[in-house]
Design brief:
This protein is α+β, with helices and mostly antiparallel strands. It folds into 3 domains: 1-33 and 46-159, Phosphorylase Kinase, domain 1 (2-Layer Sandwich); 165-375, Transferase(Phosphotransferase) domain 1 (Transferase(Phosphotransferase), domain 1, Orthogonal Bundle); 447-519 and 541-664, 2-Layer Sandwich (Arylsulfatase, C-terminal domain). It has 14 helices and 23 strands. The strands form 5 sheets. It has a 7-stranded antiparallel β-sheet with strand order 11-17-16-15-14-13-12. The protein has a 6-stranded antiparallel β-sheet with strand order 1-2-3-4-6-5, with helices on one face. Strands 18-19-20-21-22-23 form a 6-stranded antiparallel β-sheet. Helix 11 packs across helix 14. The two termini are 26 Å apart. The relative contact order is 0.08. Keywords: Kinase, Transferase. This is Cell cycle serine/threonine-protein kinase Cdc5p/MSD2.
Length: 666
């Protein structure tokens, strides 16, 4: 659905959608049968008019049934959203701005409950929500929330303020090959992610690919998306947008069904359209479009020249036999991608051809190409488990459409996140050993994590766009990190020892105890629902009785780790008080989120990486304890650490980026 965004403004009776009955009227085009009817008409004329009106109504889009949301939409989880401007509509839904209590603006895809007339339609909507909700990629529109009221179902999405590729093409008529290369890498990265999770989009087109504020592309609209349970399974529904439908889709069951290759075909259609100015099979008659698709009847206009390498790739992408099309992993190996490649796309591209593209060297283009591939997830070896649709995802209470399983609150985090409103404080906290049992609010020091996630994501996403960022750092100091750990969460919790020898236990009740080495103090970190994180300092020789058992557990783990585990880094002096806030274990790595905003990744090949200093610095600890810290941009530029080689360096950084980004949206 194409969306135009404007600043959120208050609505009054003179503005669009501000109607007292909250019902969007159906506007019919005038024709000979619909001019004003005289007050006295023959019965036959009245009957004819009614029949024509009924026929006209049947042709209206289902989105016409969508009633304008109330000025304030209230959700089951207590969050209220203020309705803003009308953004646009597609065949099944209308889109409005929605603003939450913090002022954040989203796009709300609004589906009328009146259009959900049967179980099949309902299942289709819930499947779209389940699939989109399960996705997390920098080039896919971010799913925020879903909820309903008495008249509509709302899908709340990240708003993309710079419109879509279809508006760009309408304005520019044709794009340069360097720009299209950039766009293709981001689209291919997102499609690779979808396919790794067994999701076929089935409606990839210029109008469903949007620009975020930084002019990065985001794939949206998963209304036709489907999941393949296995590699040899097929889908048979004939669906999609005429200009983009693959020939095997048109064949339906007679053609053996379709699979992931339909998205590869759509990538070829979009590439052709961006370079030539229109889709290759375009016609006013849909049947002619279908006949041309089946026969692969298209050409490259002489008056709109493109390179031979571009033609070669397009021809392979638009192979009528899906087996002969390149796989998603093979596309970027084509010679066409070795051409001029920009480091970013600016807003100037929305209205005119950017300058300076012909000044990029071959070496700089290669660096930019590799960086954008890394940012788009190309190097990620594999995604998480495939998306699944469970019966509980499609079963709701009798009076509602959305089941509880699709509520954004259904996932119970092992370690609870703190509400974003606690991150605004700028107060600096320093621990003083002279006070006892005092309560210190740690919102400023321990809650940097939310901000650092965004900064880390921004650094990796923007890469070398601002080469001055690395010179803001003058001291490449090695960070505090976890040197030993024991996961005993099936009974007590997760214990760890820092490289300053402080010992901590993250207990199963989410609270942490940290025993400071060579000090008579121990600290407890508590999560207060209304106040955020709070730290309590106690004296080791004089403490409340409630801590006795916890201290015994800390000592037990300390003895075990000192006797059985080796350190991963050399001992260093305590530079700051650091806690383990949360950890995540996967088959590839274990991720530690620290209260100073740092992220530590221990990979299964025994190499460790720490992201620190608001995402600007990266530290590598080798298996033989050699530690090196450098600016992240420096490592991205050179592809490896200068002193000790880090195997699959860019792959690991891509995995780190994806893991941190996932936490940013939980």
């Amino acid at each position: 659905m194409s969306v135009r965004t404007q600043p959120l403004q208050p609505l009054n009776n003179g503005q669009i959608n501000a109607r007292s009955n909250n019902i969007t009227p159906i506007k019919l085009k005038k024709s000979k049968d619909f001019y004003e009817v005289p007050s006295i008409q023959p019965p036959q004329a009245v009957q004819q008019q009614q029949q024509n009106l009924q026929k006209k109504k049947k042709k209206e889009k289902l989105s016409a049934l969508c009633k304008t949301p109330p000025s304030v939409v209230r959700t089951r989880n207590g969050r209220d959203y203020k309705r803003g401007l009308f953004l646009g509509e597609g065949g099944f839904a209308r889109c409005f701005q929605m603003k939450d209590s913090s002022g954040q603006i989203y796009a709300a895809k609004t589906v009328a409950k009146a259009s959900i007339k049967n179980e099949k339609t309902k299942t289709k909507l819930l499947s779209e929500i389940k699939i989109h909700k399960s996705l997390n990629h920098p080039n896919i529109v971010n799913f925020i929330d879903c909820f309903e009221d008495d008249i509509n179902v709302y899908i709340l999405l990240e708003i993309c303020p710079n419109q879509s590729l279809v508006e760009l093409l309408k304005t520019r008529k044709r794009l340069t090959e360097p720009e299209v290369r950039f766009f293709m890498v981001q689209i291919i990265g997102a499609v690779k992610y979808l396919h790794s999770r067994r999701v076929i989009h089935r409606d990839l087109k210029l109008g469903n690919i949007f620009f975020d504020p930084q002019m990065n592309l985001k794939i949206g609209d998963f209304g036709l998306a489907s999941i393949l349970p296995s590699n040899d399974s097929r889908k048979y529904t004939i669906c999609g947008t005429p200009n983009y439908i693959a020939p095997e889709v048109l064949g339906g069951k007679n053609n053996g069904g379709h699979s992931f290759e339909v998205d590869i075909w759509a990538i070829g259609i979009m590439m052709y359209a961006l370079l030539v100015g229109k889709p290759p099979f375009q016609s006013k008659d849909v049947q002619i479009i279908y006949e041309r698709i089946k026969k692969s009847d298209y050409d490259f206009p002489i008056d709109k020249p493109i390179s031979e390498d571009a033609k070669h790739l397009i021809r392979d992408l638009l192979e009528t036999n899906p087996i002969k099309r390149p796989s998603i992993n093979e596309i970027l190996n084509y010679n066409w991608f070795k051409g001029t490649f920009p480091d970013k796309i600016n807003e100037v591209s929305l209205t005119k051809q950017p300058e300076g593209l012909d000044l990029l060297s071959k070496g700089q283009s290669a660096i930019n190409f590799n960086l954008i591939k890394a940012n788009s997830g190309i190097y990620t070896p594999k995604a998480k488990n495939p998306v699944e649709i469970l019966k509980t995802d499609l079963q709701s209470e009798s009076r509602t459409v959305l089941p509880k399983s699709l509520s954004p609150n259904d996932t119970k985090l092992k370690y609870k996140e703190v509400d974003a409103n606690v991150y605004s404080t700028k107060k600096k906290i320093q621990f003083n050993s002279n006070f006892q049992n005092s309560i210190v609010n740690l919102n400023s020091t321990t809650m940097k994590t939310y901000t650092n996630i965004r900064k880390m994501e921004s650094i990796v996403m923007n890469g070398l766009h601002d080469n001055t960022r690395e010179f803001e750092i003058t001291n490449y100091e090695n960070p505090t990190l976890i040197s030993k750990w024991v996961d005993y969460s099936n009974k007590y919790g997760f214990s760890y020892q820092l490289n300053n020898d402080d010992i901590g236990v993250l207990f199963n009740d989410n609270n942490t105890l940290l025993k400071l080495t060579n000090d008579d103090q121990f600290l407890e970190l508590l999560l207060m629902e209304d106040e955020g994180w709070t730290c309590i300092e106690n004296n080791i020789s004089n403490y409340p009785n409630k801590y006795k058992r916890q201290l015994e557990i800390v000592d037990f783990f300390a003895k075990y780790m000192n006797s059985n585990l080796s350190k991963v880094s050399d001992l260093q002096q305590r530079k700051e008080i650091v806690f383990l806030r949360r950890y995540t274990r996967t088959s590839e790595f274990i991720m530690f989120e620290m209260t100073n905003g740092n992220f530590q990744f221990n990979f299964k090949d025994h190499h460790k990486i720490v992201i620190s200093n608001n995402g600007l610095l990266i530290t590598h600890i080798s298996p033989n304890r050699i530690t090196q810290t450098h600016p992240l941009l420096h490592i991205l530029r050179h592809g490896d650490f200068p002193s000790v080689h880090l195997p699959d360096c860019l792959d690991k950084i891509s995995i780190i980026k994806e893991a941190i980004q996932e936490k940013a949206y939980m």
